[in-house]
Amino acid sequence: MAVEITRQDVPAGKLRLAAVPAQEANAARRTLAIVLVLEGAGSQDIGRNLRDGPSDPARPG
């Protein structure tokens, strides 16, 4: 399923920082997946992030 990101008024770095204090792990993973898309990551990296979560909370992947 392809998704188009239409809002790009918040840079990836700010989204990454916003995901850190998220109370719900699934919401944080989804936010970090959006960051990965904005940073040009491949679909396998994004899927791994959604499935397993980031290996380092400061830097997903």
From TrEMBL:
Q: Which domain of life is it from?
A: Bacteria
Q: What is this protein called?
A: Uncharacterized protein
Organism this protein belongs to:
Paracoccus marinaquae
